[in-house]
Amino acid sequence: MKIVRTITEMQEQMQKLKSEGKTIGYVPTMGFLHEGHISLMKNARPENDIVVLSIFVNPLQFGPSEDLDAYPRDFDRDHKIAETEGVDFIFYPSAEEMYPGNASVKVSVVERTDVLCGKSRPGHFDGVATVLFKLFNIIQPTRAYFGLKDAQQVAVVDGMIRDFNFPIQLIPVETVREEDGLAKSSRNVYLNHEERIQAVELSKSLKMAKLAIENGERNPDEIVGSMKNHINENTTGTVDYIEIYSYPELERLKTLKGKVIIALAVKFSKARLIDNTILEVE
Questions:
Q1: Dihedral sign (CA 44, 45, 51, 55)
Q2: Would you state the pLDDT for residue 275?
Q3: What is the pLDDT of residue 246?
Q4: What are the CA-CA distances from residue 260 to residues 42, 58, 155, 241, 276 (Å)?
Q5: Fold for domain 2-173?
Q6: How far is CA 265 from the centre of its chain?
Q7: Which residue positions form the known binding site for ATP?
């Protein structure tokens, strides 16, 4: 496995491999790897000749109230995990390498961002799109792997790939879950014992919604109301949002049809958990 720290070297390596007809699978991360990242690497490995992992804590996607310096970092640990998963290259640039001066062009995401978590993080997805635009040009992947735990990010990347004609296949990867159904997250460690027991009700509420749709319910307000009642009655958490949209367009629906996402966020005492399910509605 090779660690590359400069854009020039990374581009040279990727161009050489592509000229040899190699396929490149790409997993973008901000490091401090967890089971979700490992799942992306495990999906990428058998589908590509070369697997590239990037580790870059992107300052552009941090808001004024979010502490960039406090973001957890452990490159040695990440390196060992990547090696175990058969990664061929780690692209590990500095902020100065990625953003050497003031940008003359900005990337602005105009759709799919004013709902779900994006509603409370203005400008966040502009930062995500900007860094991915650069990383896609540097690495030139055949396939790019993103976790559906952050389904809104996947939707934004889907739009960016389409709008800017990147020759990249987007591979969404299912959310990794605990045995009881709770979506795995680094935030789960901040739940106290009682909250951890209650947290499974989030995924249960999504299963209830899916069952209601299978039984013929098509009114999104009815489903959202039932989910809110279930979470309020079975947890001490506070519902931040429960929303249903078309996917990946993230547009409101009066009646459920086609591909939809049901997404939620719930605040516990020291952790805000998100989860979602995506399904086809006949």
A1: positive
A2: 97
A3: 98
A4: 27, 30, 12, 16, 10
A5: Rossmann fold (3.40.50)
A6: 15
A7: 30-37, 147-150, 176, 184-187
User: Could you give the percent of the chain with pLDDT greater than 90?
Assistant: 89
User: How high is the pLDDT of residue 64?
Assistant: 80
Q: Where do the domains of the chain lie?
A: 2-173, 186-281
Class for domain 186-281, per CATH?
alpha beta
Which residue of the set 37, 79, 124, 193 is catalytic? 37
How far apart are alpha carbons 52 and 141 in whole angstroms? Answer: 8
Shortest CA distance to 150 belongs to which of 282, 28, 267? 28
37 as an active site residue: the answer is yes
Binding site, annotated residues for (R)-pantoate: 61, 153
Q: What confidence tier does 120 reach under pLDDT thresholds 50, 70, 90?
A: confident
What is the rounded CA–CA span in Å between residue 62 and residue 216? 41
Is residue 253 within 8 Å of 261, Cβ to Cβ?
Answer: no
User: Both tokens of residue 69?
Assistant: 């310096």
Distances (CA, A) of 140 to 16, 61, 127, 206: 11, 22, 19, 36
